[in-house]
Write a structure and sequence with these properties.
Its cofactor is pantetheine 4'-phosphate. The strands form three sheets. The protein has a three-stranded mixed beta sheet with strand order 3-4-5. The protein has six helices and seven strands. The protein is an alpha+beta fold. Helix 3 crosses helix 4 and helix 3 packs across helix 6.
Length: 213
């Protein structure tokens, strides 16, 4: 099954979620409640103490970012067909609260701020917080390729797999810092003065217009 350009094995997602103590049953499917917008949704039953946040944290530890469900729906029981099999057509559409949007926390430091500006433009959103997930905001494989190119133009180096595996903007920024020659400092850009002279001491921080594709 392909979701946002990535091949996702639903059974693998279900198996990872099923490892969480207190979870009784889980079913994951791809929903397209808005045409062209496919999203993974996890339906589950379990102990009263089990909640969506616990599932999200557990999933983030077990799965790459592009395989994380966008929504979690608790049910009293999974619907079954007369033959006793899961009735996927009877699974309800998730309500807005099921998507569990992260509370906004402003990006910190030059790397996070520049990444947030790029994400906001590529994904068509007003603001991006440091805990936001690229794929939950609507990212897919084609946008990920554009993101890598924009990052390279900003002298921020990270393998494309970092986007698929990191769960948040802050984690991607950490990958960028780890790949820099000076891990504790933001990458430095080589700026050009109007006369064409390269300035190796220019500080990090291109305006988003300067790194537009």
């Amino acid at each position: 099954m392909k979701v946002r350009g990535f091949r996702v094995e639903l059974g693998e997602v279900e198996s990872a979620l099923a490892q969480l103590p207190g979870l009784d049953e889980v079913a994951v499917l791809v929903r397209e409640d808005v045409p062209g917008d496919k999203r993974l949704v996890a339906y589950y039953t379990g102990a009263a103490a089990l909640d969506d946040d616990a599932l999200r944290r557990h999933a983030a530890e077990k799965l790459p970012a592009y395989m994380l469900p966008a929504a979690y729906v608790r049910l009293a029981a999974l619907p079954l067909t007369p033959n006793g099999k899961l009735d996927r057509k009877a699974l309800p559409a998730p309500e807005a609260a099921a998507f569990g949007h992260q509370a906004y926390e402003a990006p910190q430091g030059a790397i996070e701020q520049t990444l947030a500006e790029i994400w906001a433009e590529l994904l068509g959103v007003e603001q991006v917080g440091r805990h936001d997930n690229f794929f939950a905001l609507g990212g897919h494989s084609l946008i990920a390729i554009r993101l890598i190119e924009r990052m390279r133009r900003a002298r921020m180096h990270a393998d494309v797999t970092a986007i698929f595996l990191t769960a948040s903007l802050s984690e991607l920024a950490a990958q960028v810092r780890a790949s820099a020659d000076e891990p504790n400092d933001p990458p430095r850009l080589i700026a050009r003065h109007p006369g064409g002279v390269r300035d190796p001491d220019a500080a990090f921080g291109l305006d988003v217009e300067e790194i537009r594709l």
